[in-house]
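User: Hello! My lab partner asked me to get a predicted holo structure for this protein. The small molecule is S-adenosylmethionine, SMILES included with the sequence. Please write out the structure tokens.
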Amino acid sequence: MTDDLMDAAVERIARRAPGAGESASASRVWWEREADDYQAEHGAFLGDAEFVWGPEGLTESAARLLGDPADLAGGRVLEIGCGAGQCGRWLRGQGATEVVGIDVSLRQLHHSRRIDEATGCRLATAQADAQLLPFADAAFDAVCSSYGAFPFIPDAAAALRETARVLRPGGRLAFSVSHPVRWCFPDSPGEEGLRVRDSYFDRRAYVEEDEQGRALYVESHQTVGDWVRAISGAGLFLTDLVEPEWPADNTEVWGGWSPLRGKLIPGTAIFAARKPEGA
Ligand SMILES: C[S@@+](CC[C@H](N)C(=O)[O-])C[C@H]1O[C@@H](n2cnc3c(N)ncnc32)[C@H](O)[C@@H]1O
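Assistant: Hello! Below are the structure tokens for the protein in complex with S-adenosylmethionine.
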């Protein structure tokens, strides 16, 4: 990453189609800057060794989208966009022999190391782009991602093909993203976040740019149908699509997610899929 991008200021918002490299570079810049605040604000909600799928608080121990946790015992799991590795530590606690976390942000991985040292559960991590995974074909029994990478990547179909490549036949994939319907609404937790502003069908990414037009933050949009086609186009079959409801006892406001909106519209979509045996 170039230092000048790290120091650049956001000058305008664009709606356009960014390239893969541009998206990875923007995510790296944004998460290097935000990692400390993100972990300080959300670390307690996420837990050090818990697998939380999103702001609603649904956990993998309740949802079981990667299957029976007992089946993970002895397995090798990849977590994409692992941040501070909270999900990976939970998977290790279920008996997964190896969990590898990749993240484009080194600062996020520093937080993973910090929690490793505090908990004594050390994860293997690597700074890498989800769009170009540094692993052999069929290297993992399962791949997961809780809001890691997929909400930001412009070409979801290509990213899912890359993910499917490293999954062994019969292996499971589960990942969460902002629910596509949220794209229509302002990203605000209050009443103003309940009025439709943008077209659900407008696939142009949201891009924050500096004065030279360089991307500093990229968020991408796929409709529900786009996600389904990207999953099946990657040779996987969809086993579930979970839209967690907002629990009455969750009073947390997380960015544009809130109890007010959570009662009315879905905030998170979690896709679960399998790679066919013999693929
Ligand atoms: C919202 S955070 C989620 C982190 C973690 N899964 C959690 O639940 O806290 C998104 C993470 O995805 C990472 N990320 C974004 N784009 C990525 C990419 N192209 N490749 C790998 N990681 C990426 C970010 O650096 C960040 O750590």
